[in-house]
Amino acid sequence: MDVVNEQIVYKINKQAKNAVVFRIQAKNKNTDITIPFEVDGYPVVEIVIGAFKDAKFLKKITLPHTIKRIQNRAFSECVNLETVIHRGNGVLEIGYEAFDNCLNLSYFSSLGIVKLTASNAFANCVNLKTLDCIFCGEIPDNTFRYCEQLEELSFGFSPTKIHSNAFVGCKNLKRIISRGNLEFSNTAGKKLQKYEIHCYEDSQLLDLAYDGQKIVIIEDTLPF
């Protein structure tokens, strides 16, 4: 069943007892959109494939705590999107090219843990500077490809594998913070000779000799 709210189409699944954001209507010219946590009494749990693709007017979107997944290309080509705020404190899954080519995206925030399920999630976000969140699991190929303004990334307790070309073109990346262990593929960190890895004193990262990066010991007071 389809429900239209504020020129956004939601699909309600009565069997699953939830709703998903299906698409934005063409007549929707709003620059600042807040997705409600429920529609007709059903929690909104997902942004489906291509829901906001090419929404040229969109500059800011706020997602409720109920959102658990942002599917493939959900916001790709939103060239004027600047800010994404997710208010959830659980795990948020982000799919293939979810924010690809969001040229003006500069700030992404989530109170929870971000899990990337496919490659190129933030590729070509050339103005992305702040990722106010913690990543877990794997960082797939080309995740941050040409995120030229990105300076810092944070990872949680779980082991994280960083795949090929994950940071290609991230010429300003200076700091990687990890409370767990990181595994780099052969090309994951190429051309990033100046970045630092911040880790615990007993971390396996202390044995990592990758491009001669600086190792910085962090304290238990690190706020994540």
Task: Give the SSE map.
Blueprint: E1 2-5, E2 8-13, E3 18-24, E4 32-34, E5 38-39, E6 42-47, E7 60-63, E8 69-70, E9 83-86, E10 91-94, E11 107-116, E12 130-136, E13 152-155, E14 160-162, E15 175-178, E16 182-184, E17 196-199, E18 214-217
Parallel strand pairs: 3-6, 4-7, 6-8, 7-9, 8-10, 9-11, 10-11, 11-12, 13-15, 14-16, 15-17, 17-18
Antiparallel strand pairs: 1-2, 2-3, 5-6
Inertia-based shape:
globular
- Span between termini: 40 Å
SS element count, helices:
0
Reported CATH architecture: Alpha-Beta Horseshoe
How would you explain this protein's 3D organization?
This protein has no helices and 18 strands. It has strands at 2-5, 8-13, 18-24, 32-34, 38-39, 42-47, 60-63, 69-70, 83-86, 91-94, 107-116, 130-136, 152-155, 160-162, 175-178, 182-184, 196-199, 214-217. Strand 5 (38-39) and strand 6 (42-47) form a beta hairpin. Helix content is 0%, strand content 36%. The model is unreliable at 201-224 (pLDDT under 50). The protein is globular and about 50 Å long. Strands 1, 2, 3, 4, 5, 6, 7, 8, 9, 10, 11 and 12 form a 12-stranded mixed sheet that branches. Strands 13-15-17-18 form a 4-stranded parallel sheet, with no helix packed on it. The chain has a two-stranded parallel ribbon with strand order 14-16. It has a single domain, classed as Leucine-rich repeat, LRR (right-handed beta-alpha superhelix), CATH 3.80.10. With 224 residues, it is mainly β. It starts with a strand and ends in a 7-residue tail after the last strand.
